[in-house]
Amino acid sequence: MDVTWPLRTIGCTRSVIYIQPKMVEQCVLALRIACQNFHSINARWYGMGQRMQKSIKRHGISRPQSQSGFTLIEIVLVVMLIGVVVAFAASRILGGGDRAKVGLAKAQIQTTADKIEQYKMDVGRYPAALEDLVKAPTGSSGWLGPYAKEIELKDPWGQPMEYKVPGENERAFSLLSHGRDGKPGGSSVDADIASE
Q1: In 60-194, which ranges are continuous DSSP H helix?
Q2: Is residue 172 within 8 Å of 187, Cβ to Cβ?
Q3: Model pTM?
Q4: Residue 194 and residue 167: Cα distance in Å, rounded?
Q5: What are the start and end residues of each CATH 3.30.700.10 domain in the chain?
Q6: 58-96 per-residue burial string, b: 16 or more CB within 10 A, e: under 16
Q7: pLDDT (tens digit per residue) in 170-189
Q8: 99-194 maps to CATH 3.30.700.10
Q9: Are 125 and 132 spatial neighbours (Cβ–Cβ below 8 Å)?
């Protein structure tokens, strides 16, 4: 019984060879020829590539190397990371200005409280309003001011300081700044800053 099957080969005149079992030797021979043809073709292409590379190097022709650089995703991630760092740094720097103003407000309130005490020592009573530190009130003897400038009666945020006579918690007077927001209460830089 004859068994045939197709065998595809490279470099043969026929595209399909039908082999019978008794012709195995011829099949092996055909495969060897096909493999030799394949290797010789491959070697020719390889040699041609080598010669082209030498020619390129000799004539100084540059060819693109493997793609180097960053992908779009990498660039977007780096830009986002830089944005986060800049935003963090800006908030720390800009927020630092408000924290510095809190320290300045504390010092300014304490200085103004000292000026109020100086007014009391000279006049004999506490001023009715903060403006009495700048201009002499009518009917007051012993006033040796001005004790303060008009601009010194505002906190670092430009809000007027709050002054009460008599003060809260059985104090002679109370002097405070309402912080950055200018409203009573709050927290952080918006918190009230009172004299001690």
Answers
A1: 72-123
A2: no
A3: 0.52
A4: 11
A5: 99-194
A6: eeeeeeeeeeeeeeeeeeeeeeeeeeeeeeeeeeeeeee
A7: 888 999 888 888 888 888 87
A8: yes
A9: no
